[in-house]
Amino acid sequence: MSNPTPASRPGAPWRLASVAVMGSVGAASRAFLYGLNKVEVTGLDNLLGVLDRRRSGKRDRGLLTVCNHVSVLDDPLIWGILPLRYAVDPENLRWGLGAHDICFKNRFFSAFFSYGQVLPTHRLWHSPNGGLYQPTITQAIKLLSSPSSVVKPSDMTFTTTGSDCFVSPSAFAANHYAWVHIFPEACCHQNPENTLRYFKWGVSRLILESDPAPEFVPMFIHGTQNIMPEDRGFPRFLPRIGQRIRIMIGQPTDADSLFGHYRSAWKRLVEKSGDPELLKNDPEAMQLRVDVAKAVRDEIQKLRLSMGFAPEEDETAALAETWSKEPNKRKFKSPVDGSLVNRH
Questions:
Q1: pLDDT digits over 275-331, tens only?
Q2: Domain limits of the chain?
Q3: Going by CATH, does the domain composed of 12-342 fall within 3.40.1130?
Q4: Residue 112 burial by Cβ neighbours in a 10 Å radius (0-12, 13-18, 19+)
Q5: How far, in Å, CA of 147 to CA of 92, rounded?
Q6: 3-state secondary structure string, 97-116?
Q7: If you ran DSSP here, which 8-state letter would residue 141 be given?
Q8: What angle do CA 155, 161, 167 make, to 5 degrees?
């Protein structure tokens, strides 16, 4: 018997729950940002223009937004910049990556964050299930890409540990060509000069392996670190108000125009190996991921400099090995640049 074509979208109860979660969180984030803080957004039309075009049915590729990470509240707080009409349209909103041990630690949290279009992600420093090739990264690649012509019953769910089980968003055709947002630093990095850490290679997989190449929009944020500073005192659980929040959104660009030569190199490696699985530890493939992550970081760095921050004094900050001396802890002061780090 032939495989059925992919279901169009999740059932009505799931969609209603998603509208409720994303709409209420979006409204709360917007009220907090604009009601209790001073917000300056540059380039908002760049993002809204893409979302409007995609909502009108002109979706022939995914959307990848990439941003620095300075606060545990960056997501969902930064999406409060979107007018409320966008917050009740989940099919045109972002899919994000959330820590499995925090966002999915019980049944209630799992349901809430799943309805909120968050994918369960393991951090390798914390869990042996983490890393570049965990199932969640594969889900994100599929969400960015075109839908498959067939779907197997086994594709309807996925597991991140072998014992948990989540509905697979990529099983639904309407979820493809999706908007995926990622913080490639993969931890909160609070530095007075808002410098950048190295970018992890998951973002490289999203760019190299999605098909077709997604639309790419870089972002840079400053000020949310003052809402939830890592060195805050009592009451630690309360966000601080009256802060100046600055968000810059870059021009949307076809990823092929920025990273096309890397994608071509990846395709040659896949053709040569005959199986992408064989490229997990291939030296050329690994170097390609390093180069793509660095290139993505350079795009965010351009926005940072345009906001008036000083250039980096040490270019090795873009390399993973520079940060390898950091302790294997959740929260610490980095010995590399003195920043406060939270691997939330």
A1: 888 999 999 999 999 999 999 999 999 999 999 999 987 889 999 999 998 998 889
A2: 12-342
A3: yes
A4: middle
A5: 16
A6: EEEHHHHCCCHHHHHHHHHC
A7: H
A8: 35
Residue 8's identity, in one-letter code, is S
Which residue bears the tokens 């729950």? 17
Instruction: For residue 118, give every residue at least 6 positions away whose Cβ sits within 8 Å of its Cβ, in sequence order, or none.
Output: 95, 96, 97, 98, 103
Phi-psi group of 238: left, alpha or beta (phi > 0 → left; psi -120 to 50 → alpha; rest → beta):
beta
Count of C-beta atoms within a 10 Å radius of residue 27: 14
Tell me which amino acid residue 29 is: S
pLDDT digits (tens, 9 = 90+) for 101-112: 999 999 999 999
Strand partners, 244: 38
CA-closest candidate to residue 258, choices 178, 200, 316, 203: 203
**Alpha carbon distances (Å) from 24 to 86, 152, 195:** 12, 34, 32
